[in-house]
Write a structure and sequence with these properties.
The protein is elongated. 45% of the residues lie in helices and 18% in strands. With 225 residues, the protein is an alpha+beta fold. A 6-stranded mixed sheet has the order 1-5-6-4-3-2.
């Protein structure tokens, strides 16, 4: 929709109505936009690709903001829509997290589980499932504490779930760390990482970019490269 520079717009922040965080808001010609994703200066092509995908292919009203040190993509929004649970990329997470983070993390976990079961057989798949159950129990992951719940988490499509479990960001980070540890233990190397990341192709492009942006800023970024 628009490619703008910093001097063309006003950027402010407002308090999220239900969370202890500020939401960046861009204003241009009486229209308001919400931050979707941030790219470093050398990621211009990635920023433009996301912006074009949103505007040309998905019909979204978006701004690509060009600044000397970064690029950012903003989506048009009415301020009365901020009751949405969608968490913009790069915002701090408090009590709960965006369903996107949970869905993406589960896609990576499930792919690792399926690869182990396919390549090593049901016995190793069951062992991995028991290991994951131990992680969930130790971390007190709500909705994944019983054997049936663990089986559901490992097999049900997280993108079609009516409600994501109310996990915290610290639990998501722990899950990704433990998924990598188990994957390396079972495979003997980090070759499983590529398949786990490829599973994110099931996400819409905007969600995939937002999650990868969050992952790159997280404490487990170095594990999932």
């Amino acid at each position: 929709m628009f490619i703008l520079r910093r001097q063309d717009v006003e950027i402010s922040s407002i308090q999220h109505p239900r969370k202890d965080q500020k939401i960046p808001i861009l204003t241009y010609q009486s229209m308001t936009f919400r931050l979707l994703s941030v790219f470093q200066a050398h990621q211009e092509d990635d920023a433009r690709s996301l912006w074009r995908d949103l505007t040309d292919h998905q019909g979204k009203a978006c701004v690509l903001l060009e600044e000397p040190e970064r690029y950012s993509v903003w989506g048009k929004i009415r301020l009365d829509q901020l009751n949405s649970d969608i968490l913009p990329s790069g915002m701090p997470v408090q009590k709960g997290v965006s369903p996107l983070l949970i869905q993406a993390s589960l896609l990576m976990l499930q792919t690792t589980y399926l690869d182990i079961e396919d390549l090593m057989g049901a016995k190793q798949g069951n062992a991995f499932q028991r290991d994951v159950a131990g992680i969930f129990q130790k971390g007190r992951f709500q909705g994944a504490m019983t054997p049936d719940e663990v089986q559901q988490v490992l097999t049900a499509d997280p993108l079609n779930s009516l409600q994501s479990p109310p996990w915290r960001e610290t639990q998501i980070i722990s899950l990704l760390q433990e998924t990598h540890r188990l994957g390396q233990a079972y495979f003997g190397n980090s070759g499983f990482v590529r398949n786990a990341l490829d599973a994110l192709q099931d996400l819409p492009a905007i969600d995939r970019t937002a999650f990868l942006d969050w992952l790159a800023r997280s404490p487990v970024a170095s594990l999932w490269k």
